[in-house]
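Re: [help] complex structure
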Amino acid sequence: MSTEERETVTGSGGAPAGVAEAESPAAGGPTGGGQPPRVRRTPLPLALLRNSWRQLTSMRTALILLFLLALAAIPGSVLPQRNINIENVNRYAAEHPDLFPILDRVGGFDVYASPWFSAIYVLLFTSLVGCIVPRLRDHARALRAAPPPAPKRLDRLPRHAVLTDSDGDLARIAAVLRKRRWRVVVRGDTVSAEKGYLKETGNLLFHFSLIGVLLGIGLGSWYGWHGNRLLVAGPDNAFCNTLQQYAESKLGHRVDGSDLPPFCLELTDFTASFLPTGQPSSFRATTLVEQGDRAPYRASFSVNDPLRLDGASVYLLGHGYAPILRYTDRNGESLESDEAFLTIDGNLTSEGVAAFPDVNLDPVTGARNPDLQVAFEGLYFPTAPDAPPFVSSTYPAERSPAVMLFAYRGNLGLDAGIPGSVYRLDQRQVSSGKLKQIGEGKLLRPGEKWTLDDGTSVEFVGTRQYVTISVRYDPGERIVLISSVLLLLGLMSSLFGRRRRVWFRLSPAPADATTTGRSSLVEVGGLPRTEYAGFADEFDRLVAATRPDGVPGDDVPRPGGARPDGATEEGTD
Amino acid sequence: MAALSDQLLVVAILGYLLAMICHAVEYAFGTRSVIGRAAARPERERVLVGAGVGAAGGSGSVDEPAPVAGTKLPGTDAPVRSAGARSPRAVLAGRAAVALTVLAAVLHLAVLTTRGIAAERMPWGNMYEYLLSVTFVGVVGWLVLLYRRATLRHLGLFVTLAMVLLLAVAGLVLYVPIVPLVPALDSYWFVVHVATIATSSGILLLGAVPAVMYLIRHGYDQGKRSFPYSLGARVPAADTLERLTFRLHAFAFPLFTFAVMAGAVWAEAAWGRYWGWDPKEIWAFISWVVYAGYLHARATPSVKRPVATWIAVLGFLTMQMNLYGVNIFFEGLHSYGGLD
Ligand code: HEM
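Output below.
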């Protein structure tokens, strides 16, 4: 890439390291100052296009886009996001009725899928491709090319040394260098060597892996899906993997309901253990899995230890209790409800509703009587307090379970088709008087029965455990993982790799040199192409190793200044 | 054990505070000529000068100049001119400051160890413990740096100031009694994740010190003399600071990248998705992008070094946002709640 070369050139020219040079003026600069703009032959639109492309693929643009990406990510942490927590979004909408529609229109609640966020990363990755593909080409060429010829004056390079007692055997020097894994070429009286191609290889690997990560994410969002639901223990509550079975689900753009892999899951057992303080210490859910031709088998999973099925994984998100309530109506018919109650605190106080819309039917016609529907709203305490008030549980495990029930009779309003909470009664029905509370609340322990004013009764039979699970499939995961590992390897090679060059040049020994007969003068120059503090040491060791005996002596090399006058005395120490 | 840990924290903070005072004393008595110049010039410049001189007339070896009494930094000839100008009281105060920092760091380690023993797990279970770990990594990193480059000692004032402030925040704002880990945090990957995040955060935290000092020194070199820049008189040369900033960031960035990846692996097992734009994740992403921008900017020839360094400082601010801001302002899965 021209920018890098440019910096190197300035560096070797003797300017202090790291002097920032303007990027190549060709990169998007306006046409030259003095000349009339019409001198160019390229048609304007094409020139414009080319210029914008150059502009886009410049590192400076990449930097601005990176900055914008960081900036654009911020709103997602401030505003609730639909794909993370829809309830929070709804609450926000209720609390800020004026602001919400405006923010919603600009994608404030779907930041990471919003057009502006996408625009930034699409531009960034376009820039990335435009930047690294030419770099890849250049690098491939550099990998095949021989190290460049030596500059005229080796003493102008950052490192320089003169060997006065060398045997002048360049082939041997080249061999030493090769052994140290330098890429070497001998041209006439010079040896050129270069090392550290891994840096650029790593850089390219890093940037290409970024593309891999993006592709993996894209693949996941196209072909992945997930569904969340609650699963109460017991064979009657088993579910099979179809879209309708999920309370909340999301399919990738290229997935439809028929693509979900078939399997059925029954929660057979759930155990949670708690510390004396009530803090949970472990969970484990055991399920009966039916998938494909295999006989149903037992499998258990936990937090941090999902259940891996063919084409999907099941994650444990939460748990709670579903009280079993048996209602016996005026006709003596008994119905059972095991609706899950929503946990509302750390001690698993749970609230919920058991609705019995199909009770007290007309004994003759079997028709529903809309005024005799029954529902119980209440709280469940895995460990009820010893004395009133019965408002919250004192421990999350079932030490002395009890339900506090409030009975209602009347029209439950279920036919209206208005979706409501399954954990609360429809308050409109209550306030309009269509649904009336019967008596006061009553605390029931397991096995206890409460007979209502009309002779019907409700019994608290016991509880079942439930779990909330997320069933997910993400085909891009593996690609993202592999790309990330490569990304990291590339990043490290790039950051810690060092490209450097050395040259050895044989020159006729000066007449007054106090050298032994066989020796000739070898000049050595070294150029670190990237910042590399240890280069001086490496250079010295390298120079020492290329001496005829190959052992670093303590008198040679004489790094640093060239000695045109042939002075051989030791440098002051 | 838990109470011991809490008491040790107070002593450790006191230790850092004393170290800070000693640094301040050294700072006050130190003479500008020494401190301001006791820094390496850029390698290449030095070598080129040497080579030039050598070519012209033949001088001694330039790559390892003679060590000068009283200055420990190899590779510079500047202090020669100003050697001997330093007050012995300042030197004494500086040495005392370092000794106190070491002592405080030992106490700091003891705070963590006792806390870990009391909780029967690694002390990373909540923000309080986490911040203690991060700052510990930071101070160890600082001492290692100091060992290798004694001339950086003057930065100690800022390091100890940061330690006092951060530990005080930890103790006053984030403190929570010991509780065991909730099941969601009970994972091998979680340990890897938190250990690497804490280490890389510690180093990035430390990296911000030379970054800010560089900006101050750079402004000072440009002739600015108003308040923050006036401090520039007493810090190492701009170039040294800038390279130190880069080294620390270049070391910490891949580690931070790995830590985020380990977190993603853990998140996949715990929540079913490797990335979910939870506030902590969002800010880690932001920090990552900003630090990537810093490394990028530094490799871009048309971006000046101070601009690049400002990006590093910005990265530091985003890290702080993640350390405190997110825990305080937003609710998310990372609020160390786990299942409820
Ligand atoms: C997806 C966004 C990008 C990220 C996260 C990113 C990140 C990085 C990082 C962290 C570095 C420093 C570490 C290293 O040397 O490998 C770097 C270097 C580099 N990037 Fe990027 N980059 C991105 C896009 C781009 C684009 C669009 C270009 C081209 C315009 C580009 C060109 C370069 C070059 C030339 C270097 C290395 C310079 C050198 O060390 O000689 N990058 N990038």
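Residues 115-144 of chain A form the longest helix (30 residues).
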